[in-house]
Amino acid sequence: MNDKDIATPKRTKALLDQYGFKFKKSLGQNFLIDTNIIQNIISASDIDENTGVIEVGPGMGSLTEQLARSAKKVLAFEIDQRLIPVLEDTLSPYSNVQVVNEDILKANVKEEIDKHLQDCDKIMLVANLPYYITTPILMNLLENNLPIDGYVVMMQKEVGERLNAQVGSKSYGSLSIACQYYTETERVLVVPKTVFMPPPNVDSIVIKLTKRKEPIVVVDDEKLFFKLTRGAFQQRRKTILNNYISTIIEGKMHKEEILEWLTTSNIDPKRRGETLTIQEYAQLCNNLKKYPNLSV
Ligand code: SAM
C-alpha cells in the first residue's frame, strides 16, 4: 500500500477532477476508497503468481491495481467507455492487465479466458459488483460452466445473505439453491457504506464461492431443476402444491397428478418451498419423468 493507491479518497477525487468524471447511478458506480477492505478481499481470494483473475467493473482501477500486484494476469470487463482512458492511465504501470470494454452479460467470457488466461493454473473472479445486476452476473457465470475455480465478490448485503442462506431461513430461496448447487458459499466480511464514493444506500457484504468438483446433488435435467426451484418460491407464502399448480402447464387440470408426484417424492404438499432441502428438490426433479402429463 502507498499514498498513490487509487483506493484512497484523495487519489479518487483527484482522478474524478482530472477526467471530469460524473458517476452514473444506473451503472452501479460506487468506487472503493479503502485499501484495507481491498486487502481483505485479496487475502480471501487465495491469489498467487500463477493465478489468473477476472474482474467485473474495474471502475478507475482501485481493486484492479492491487489484483495486478498479486496475480499473474487480470482480465477486467468494464461497460462504461468513459472509464477506458482513465484505466489506461491508472493501470499503465501493470503490463499484466487486459481491460475489455464490454458488458459482462453480453461478452464471450469463455473466448476471452482462452485468449488471455490460458497459461494460468487457477482462475478466480474477484469483483466489487455493480449491484443492480449481481444476480444475473453470478447466474450467467455459474450456469455457463466456465473454467472459474472460485469467486470473491462484493454485493448488497441482503443479496449476499440470500446466496449463503440455509434451508428454513427467511433468505433461503432459488438463488441460494442455485449458488449452493455449484459452489460452497462462505461469508467473508460485512462492509459499511462509508468505504465507497459515493456511498450506496445499503450495507455490503463480501462472499466467497468455491466451485465444487461436482454439483452437490445429481439431477437428470439441470434446466428442469432450476425451473422447479424457481417455481417453488413464486409466492413464498403459498404451499409447494399451490406454487406448482401455477408453475406446471395447465396445473389446475393436473392437480391430482401433482399431488401424486409430490407424495411419491416424499414431500408433504402442504410444505412451503423454503423448508425443502436441495436434496429434496433433486428428488422432485428426478421423479417428474414418471409423470409425462406434467411439464413446466
Ligand atoms: N471496481 C471498482 C471499485 O471497486 O472501485 C468499481 C466498482 S462499481 C461498484 C461497479 C463497476 O461495474 C463500475 O465501474 C461500472 O461501470 C461497471 N459495470 C456496470 N455494469 C456493468 C456491466 N454490465 N458489465 C461490466 N461492467 C459493468
UniProtKB/TrEMBL annotation:
Recorded catalytic activity of this chain's protein: adenosine(2085) in 23S rRNA + 2 S-adenosyl-L-methionine = N(6)-dimethyladenosine(2085) in 23S rRNA + 2 S-adenosyl-L-homocysteine + 2 H(+); adenosine(1518)/adenosine(1519) in 16S rRNA + 4 S-adenosyl-L-methionine = N(6)-dimethyladenosine(1518)/N(6)-dimethyladenosine(1519) in 16S rRNA + 4 S-adenosyl-L-homocysteine + 4 H(+)
Matches recorded under CDD domains: AdoMet_MTases (cd02440)
Protein name: Ribosomal RNA small subunit methyltransferase A
InterPro entries to which the protein is assigned, alphabetical: KsgA/Erm, rRNA_Ade_diMease-like_C, rRNA_Ade_Mease_Trfase_CS, rRNA_Ade_methylase_Trfase_N, rRNA_adenine_dimethylase, SAM-dependent_MTases_sf
Coiled coil keyword on record: no
Record PROSITE patterns: RRNA_A_DIMETH, SAM_RNA_A_N6_MT
Gene Ontology MF annotations: 16S rRNA (adenine(1518)-N(6)/adenine(1519)-N(6))-dimethyltransferase activity; 23S rRNA (adenine(2085)-N(6))-dimethyltransferase activity; RNA binding
Record keywords: Cytoplasm, Methyltransferase, RNA-binding, rRNA processing, S-adenosyl-L-methionine, Transferase
Residues the entry annotates as binding S-adenosyl-L-methionine: 30, 32, 57, 78, 103, 128
Subcellular location: Cytoplasm
Family, per entry: Belongs to the class I-like SAM-binding methyltransferase superfamily. rRNA adenine N(6)-methyltransferase family. RsmA subfamily.
Gene3D superfamilies from the UniProt entry: Ribosomal RNA adenine dimethylase-like, domain 2 (1.10.8.100), Vaccinia Virus protein VP39 (3.40.50.150)
Entry superkingdom: Bacteria
Function: Specifically dimethylates two adjacent adenosines (A1518 and A1519) in the loop of a conserved hairpin near the 3'-end of 16S rRNA in the 30S particle. May play a critical role in biogenesis of 30S subunits. This protein produces a dimethylation of the adenine residue at position 2085 in 23S rRNA, resulting in reduced affinity between ribosomes and macrolide-lincosamide-streptogramin B antibiotics.
Transmembrane parts of this sequence: none
Keyword S-adenosyl-L-methionine attributed: yes
GO CC list: cytosol
